[in-house]
Task: structure prediction
Amino acid sequence: MKNTSITGSGNLIANLQKAEALRVHSIETFGTHDGPGIRLVIFVQGCQFHCLYCANPDTISIDGGTLMSLDQIVAKAKKQKPFFGKNGGVTISGGEPLLQRAMLKELFNKLHKEGIHTTLDTNGKVIDKQTKDLLETTDLVMLDIKHINNDWHHKITRLSNVNTLKFAEYRESTGKPMWLRYVLVPGYSDQEEYLHQLGDHFKNYKSIEKIEILPYHKLGVHKWEALGWKYELEYVESPEITSLKKASDILQQYFRRVEVG
Ligand code: SF4
Result:
């Protein structure tokens, strides 16, 4: 399987910073699934992970997408602001937004000047000074936890979960809000013992407002085929209602709010 995801990303990202631009994959104007209220959702290009079930594998390569200036994005958000209501705003999703974290901080500052709420949907793989700076201007974090067990995390994403857990710990230390998201994949992330471990790990976090269980689906398979990549979960079906209920029952023992998306 070919993965060109972060080859040469250093230069590309440096160039983006000079240009005050983001490398964007696509935009959803009236999103209702990625954060509170009605939102402008910007899916950025590039990701370090290579999740077995990625529904948008065409976002993984840092070389794809198109450049969009911060001012263009802010203008779009201002135009849509009347529809945001009390809770809506802008969500940056991906791909993985943290690959462009310095630029996102600029963007979030600009959005705040316009009174627009900011949400970051991230895998939490990078936790450094620039990430911490970005988190200061991030009203809500939606942190994707792929697996609490590092071996399984590696199997699912090819990389470790250590930084993701450090990212969560840092966000907790700031006292600012966070949602967790967890994709339930039969045979991969639905093991009862690990759901308990997940709950146990986060049970004392005060910043976590809720956890969303997202049922695995195969809607992105055709994109894997188009890229010429082998889809290893070909024979894995979406979780049954009973399995979703069981996961939800377990997580309710640890989190104040559990939602199945
Ligand atoms: S973190 Fe998200 S965008 Fe990146 S490979 Fe995984 S599912 Fe795809």
Observations:
- Residues 1-8 have pLDDT under 50 and may be disordered.
- The chain has nine helices and nine strands.
